[in-house]
Amino acid sequence: MRVQTVCILGGTGFVGRQIANRLANTPVRIKVLTRHRERNRHLLPIPNLELKEANVHDPQDLRRELASCDAVINLVAVLNEGKGEGRRFEDIHVELVRKLIDACRACGVKRLLHMSALGAEPDAPSRYQQTKAEGERLALEAHGEDLAVTVFKPSVIFGPADSFLNRFASLLRIAPVMPLPTPHARFKPVYVGDVAAAFVQALEDRDTFGRRYELCGPRVYTLEELVRYAAELMGIQRYILGLNDRFSRLQAKVMQRVPGQPYTWDNYLSAQVDNICVQDGLGELGIRATALEAVAPAYLGGRMTRLRYNQWRREAGRD
User: Fold this and answer.
1) Neighbouring C-beta atoms of residue 269, cutoff 10 Å
2) Which domains does the chain possess?
3) 229-250 as b/e, with b when 16 or more CB fall inside 10 Å?
4) Separation of first and last alpha carbons in the chain
5) CA 64 to CA 81: how far, in whole Å?
6) How far apart are CA 217 and CA 213, in angstroms?
7) How far apart are CA 210 and CA 247, in angstroms?
8) Burial level of 258, CB count in 10 A (0-12/13-18/19+)?
9) By CB count within 10 A, which of 107, 163, 304, 318 is most buried?
10) What angle (nearest 5°) sits at the alpha carbon of residue 67, between those of residues 193 and 140?
11) C-alpha 236: how far from chain center
């Protein structure tokens, strides 16, 4: 299959930016949809990228923007749902997929790459996982002669500007004691560059049609091990208090009421399922998984250096 134009939903996010950069200076034209074009002007230097303002939840907007595309990559997802239409798990993980499939068929789009998640199963404990599973089911059921579908199921994704290790790094910087819920939850973190490479590799590869790929890194960690590693890289000593199940539940119920919802009941439920691959999807795509230790020191190890530098500038009156 020859792809000339690909539309990326969620292209301004963590993984989307990586995919766009990998497609930079290739014959493939990239269209990234966003509700706020001015906030994402940093993508404009990519020479073959068009940044379009559109509401992906509006079927008319979707059809208008997909009319000139051969392929679509759907990366839209949320870890915590908000209130109101368009912000709930079902709206984003299920209804958007249904609208997208309809738009693909109406516009003659022949290729759909869909981001699901490891642990997404109909009988999973959390609504996040359940709705991701339903969206995955809809995507794969749409696979056929008129629309070739591939699904990716990554573990937690790490890399510069990630929302996982960087979140803990920020908390470690300000908190002398960190109460850590579900400290024994297990993950096999995957590098964002490897996830982006999987999408780009599969884009025109017929062998990937109708398949799903689990994406994981080379090593299993507990949540507590990851947080302690982040503290080690930052060169700080903190007391990390692993909470038992009772107090993990309590923290989830309390923290989901805090502005920004740093931890929710649904997050707690998601952590009850190990985030570990059964299948080596990266290996099947010919991609060698990148170790966390090969990447994290560059963006976590430099955090304290940058903070100290900024503090010195303030003390010197240069800010």
Assistant:
1) 19
2) 5-158+189-215 (3.40.50.720)
3) bbbebbeeebebebbeeeebbe
4) 54
5) 27
6) 13
7) 43
8) exposed
9) 107
10) 55
11) 28
Locate 105 and state its tokens.
Answer: 């068929």
Q: Which contiguous run of DSSP H or E holds residue 96? A: helix 96-107
Pairing state between β 157-158 and 190-191: parallel
- What are the φ and ψ backbone dihedral angles of 40, each rounded to 5 degrees? -120, 30
With contact defined as beta carbons under 8 Å apart, do 9 and 33 qualify?
A: yes
pLDDT tens over the chain, length 319 residues: 899 999 999 999 999 999 999 999 999 999 999 999 999 999 999 999 999 999 999 999 999 999 999 999 999 999 999 877 678 999 999 999 999 999 999 999 999 999 999 999 999 999 999 999 999 999 999 999 999 999 999 999 999 999 999 999 999 999 899 999 999 999 999 999 999 999 999 999 999 999 999 999 999 999 999 999 999 999 999 999 999 999 999 999 999 998 888 899 999 999 999 999 999 999 999 999 999 999 999 999 864 444 443 444 444 455 5
- The residue behind tokens 């798990």 is 89
At 79 the three-state DSSP class reads coil
**Tokens 């190990």 -> residue:** 274
> Is the CB of residue 227 less than 8 Å from the CB of residue 240?
yes
The region, left, alpha or beta by phi > 0 then psi within -120 to 50, assigned to residue 39 is alpha
- Could you say which DSSP state residue 41 is in? G
Both structure tokens of 86: 């368009």
DSSP state, residue 289: P
Around Cβ 61, how many Cβ atoms within 10 Å? 18
Residue written as token pair 């993980």: 93
SS3 of 224-236: the string is: HHHHHHHHHHHCC
